[in-house]
Write a structure and sequence with these properties.
Layout (H helix, E strand, L loop, with lengths): L2 H14 L14 E3 L10 E7 L7 E7 L4 E6 L11 E6 L5 E10 L5 E4 L2 E6 L2 E6 L4 E7 L6 E6 L5 E5 L4 E6 L2 E6 L6 E7 L2 E6 L5 E5 L5 E5 L5 E6 L5 E6 L3 E6 L5 E5 L11 E3 L4 E5 L6 E7 L1
Antiparallel strand pairs: 1-2, 2-25, 3-4, 4-5, 5-6, 7-8, 8-9, 9-10, 11-12, 12-13, 13-14, 15-16, 16-17, 17-18, 19-20, 20-21, 21-22, 23-24, 24-25
Length: 301
């Protein structure tokens, strides 16, 4: 791997988060909990398990509820190079790597979205469609003008939304065709979550969490000071979310409350990339990117 591109990507992400508000946190070895009088809830996370470090530059993790399995994207190279080194792993819910190279031949796979029997993955300039039962790529949607496709979310109707962090766009796959859904007012968009007719967006450049009404595309800012926003998930409690900052911080926030740090792994030099949350198990899954492992935390709200 050439270090230059990694340095470039890291520089952009660090620059994006330089204006983030620093928040004090209180940490023990396995548990992080931060109290604040402005928060109604006091959330904490406790480390449950860590995978082996056989994963390689793991960027995203996604839970398949039907099959009770985790999918993990492995860049295994430079985040923007088409080298066909990328792959997807299958990991059990207790952290065992069941199939390290389940799907291979990708370039630098990042975000994932699931709909019925299809797994959708961003791969630099293409949206890749994988047949889960076959474990094979069945279609690629090359996106015109794409620069750095990143996160994915799928709504209940099967519309696939995905971000392009460097082209400052959000695209949507509808009825087999890719269209640009949003291209103005974005600043390095990344993490996406479609739920209840809303599209939530965590951005690396503006360091905030926005919510769009999908029908009107009108947006509002829910929170600022979130660093290089990467993943966004709902906790299951109405109006509450968890957002990761790629630099190694995870926030818990409510729609009427300020973000609060629940995990800080910067001193361990572990990134916190595109997170997943399994609501019925209160399990927060964190890809550590250069740390080459997934860490699972029990979340208490």
């Amino acid at each position: 791997m050439r270090k230059l591109t990694y340095m470039m990507i890291s520089f952009l992400i660090v620059c994006a988060s330089c204006d983030s508000k620093k928040e004090e946190n209180k940490e023990t070895k396995d548990t992080v909990a931060v109290d604040s009088s402005t928060m109604k809830k006091k959330a904490s996370v406790t480390l449950k398990w860590t995978t082996d470090t056989m994963l390689t530059t793991c960027e995203s993790v996604l839970f398949d509820k039907e099959r009770k399995i985790l999918y993990v994207t492995n860049i295994n190279g430079q985040p923007d190079q088409k080298d066909k080194n990328g792959f997807i792993s299958k990991v059990s819910l207790d952290g065992k790597i069941e199939n390290l190279q389940w799907v291979t031949g990708l370039n630098a796979p990042k975000g994932m979205g699931l709909y019925k029997n299809k797994l959708y993955v961003t791969d630099i300039t293409a949206l890749v469609e994988i047949d889960i039962e076959k474990g094979k790529v069945v279609k690629k949607y090359e996106v015109s003008g794409a620069k750095f496709l990143n996160d994915i979310t799928v709504d209940t109707a099967g519309v696939v939304y995905f971000s392009d962090s460097f082209a400052n766009k959000i695209h949507a796959l509808k009825s087999g065709k890719v269209e640009t859904w949003k291209e103005d007012g974005l600043n390095q968009p990344n993490g996406l979550l479609a739920i209840n007719g809303k599209l939530y967006l965590a951005s690396m450049g503006s360091n905030d969490l926005k919510v769009f009404d999908i029908a009107s595309k009108k947006d509002s800012v829910l929170a600022t000071g979130l660093g290089a926003g990467d993943g966004v998930v709902a906790t299951g409690e109405e109006g509450y979310f968890i957002v990761s900052d790629w630099n190694g911080v995870v926030y818990h926030l409510g729609s009427a409350e300020k973000p609060r740090v629940i995990l800080d792994t910067k001193e361990q030099k572990l990134n916190t990339a595109d997170i997943e949350f399994i609501q019925d198990q209160n399990l927060l899954l964190v890809p550590t990117f250069f740390g080459n492992k997934i860490q699972a935390y029990e979340f208490t709200e």
